[in-house]
């Protein structure tokens, strides 16, 4: 069997960038069982309520829903179990320092296969307040309106 190349997206947390200000991102490997990998290969996972925690110098991914593998037997996995993330010692120590000192959180942004290995992109993030969300939406709307005006000007239409 030929080795897979590239990046195949499995699940994405679309609300993460809306609810959180992303300061830094990290790519981490995920420790999985066989039936979890098979279920992920079918493109079945949800990051909606997921988060990451630091416990005793290890990073854990919690509340990710990977449904049971349909063809699995009694060896099937538990859908919402905690999964260990694989990061370098330096990255873990940096995350421990940042989360302790400034009250930042670890939020998973996406789950994907990279060259056949399951990876998760986690972000060091700060929660947004309502006014921050409103400001971001206003900026996006203004940017979209400017792009429309530029497009109309290029086509020779009046504004």
Automatic annotation (TrEMBL):
Region (Disordered): 129-159
GO CC list: cytosol
Biased segments, Basic and acidic residues type: 133-147
Molecular function GO terms recorded: RNA binding
InterPro entries: SmpB, SsrA-bd_prot, SsrA-bd_prot_CS
CDD domains on file: SmpB
UniProt subcellular location: Cytoplasm
Keywords: Cytoplasm, RNA-binding
GO BP annotation list: trans-translation; trans-translation-dependent protein tagging
PANTHER family: SSRA-BINDING PROTEIN, TMRNA-BINDING COMPONENT OF TRANS-TRANSLATION TAGGING COMPLEX
Cited HAMAP family: SmpB (MF_00023)
Family designation: Belongs to the SmpB family.
Role summary: Required for rescue of stalled ribosomes mediated by trans-translation. Binds to transfer-messenger RNA (tmRNA), required for stable association of tmRNA with ribosomes. tmRNA and SmpB together mimic tRNA shape, replacing the anticodon stem-loop with SmpB. tmRNA is encoded by the ssrA gene; the 2 termini fold to resemble tRNA(Ala) and it encodes a 'tag peptide', a short internal open reading frame. During trans-translation Ala-aminoacylated tmRNA acts like a tRNA, entering the A-site of stalled ribosomes, displacing the stalled mRNA.
Entry protein name: SsrA-binding protein
Organism: Halosaccharopolyspora lacisalsi
């Amino acid at each position: 069997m030929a080795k897979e190349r590239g990046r195949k997206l499995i699940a994405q947390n679309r609300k993460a960038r809306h609810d959180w200000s992303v300061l830094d991102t990290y790519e981490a490997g995920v420790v999985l069982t066989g039936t979890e990998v098979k279920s992920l290969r079918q493109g079945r996972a949800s990051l909606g309520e997921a988060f990451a925690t630091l416990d005793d110098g290890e990073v854990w991914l919690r509340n990710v829903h990977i449904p049971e593998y349909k063809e699995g037997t009694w060896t099937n996995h538990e859908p919402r179990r905690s999964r260990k993330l694989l990061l370098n010692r330096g990255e873990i120590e940096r995350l421990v320092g940042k989360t302790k000192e400034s009250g930042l959180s670890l939020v998973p942004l996406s789950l994907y296969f990279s060259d056949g290995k399951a990876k998760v992109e986690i972000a060091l993030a700060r929660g947004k307040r309502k006014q921050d969300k409103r400001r971001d939406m206003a900026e996006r709307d203004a940017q979209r309106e400017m792009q429309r005006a530029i497009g109309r000007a290029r086509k020779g239409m009046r504004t």
